[in-house]
Design goal:
With 280 residues, the protein is an alpha/beta fold. It has one domain: Rossmann fold, CATH 3.40.50. The strands form two sheets. Strands 5-4-6-7-10-9 form a six-stranded mixed beta sheet, sandwiched between helices. Strands 1-2-3-8 form a four-stranded antiparallel beta sheet, with no helix packed on it. Helix 1 runs antiparallel to helix 7. It is globular.
Length: 280
Amino acid sequence: MQNHENIYLSVKDYLVSGESFDLVYDDDLDFLKTFPQPEVNELPRYYESQDYISHTDEKRGLFSSAYQFIKKWSLQKKANLILEMNKGLGSLLDVGAGTGDFLKVAKDKGWDVYGMEPNKNASSLASEKGIQLKFSLNEFEGKQFDIVTLWHVLEHIPNLEETILQLSSLVKTNGTLIVAVPNFKSYDANHYGKFWAAFDVPRHLWHFSKKSIENLFSEHFKLQETKPMIFDSFYVSLLSEKYKTGNKFSLKGIWTGLVSNLKAKNTKEYSSHIYCFKKI
């Protein structure tokens, strides 16, 4: 039975089902867990929406157009980051590769690329770009890579501890693991509360703080650097305003995103962070 004293917030699935879920605080790890969590075989139905933009290349409407525009810029930043962390080209595994855009950019720059994506529609779009994706991490058993990346993916994975062990086995010694996730301790998260779009229940099963990420990976990896994802606060705030007020565009959302970034210059609690680890 759930201990209701640990409920941090009750939130709604605004994208697909309209169902409500609790966010339960784990004080040992300093993170939130979505409760109840759908069974693994039930999870795919919560992604069945044309508005789930990470599984589509469409530029339909303001949010998806803005997302696709910013994505082009961020892909180059990601490509520069992996080159910097690896001190040159090498082998790259992208977990939760979506429609394959990051791997396409990396491949064009000379990386030896591999990817995993469980969504068939997204994987099909990647295939059209010449990027062949595997369905499961189990298909990479016995292989190791210079760099493994998870861009806003860890929060979606049901078997968290098991996956971290798999990731450890997939990264070469002194290789790099890069994990990007939202931060529930950011200003925009606190400002919007139950309307914060990055809670995105039940697709997001876990909701991380900086402390929780470092603790979860500390047995196998050493944290080298934490970087902000400055555009996330704007996009998430705009979407949060939509959930809160019904307005498709809001200057207030832009303002909140800006305030979140400005406050984070002091608190170091950005809307999302990129964590760069080295394999011990």
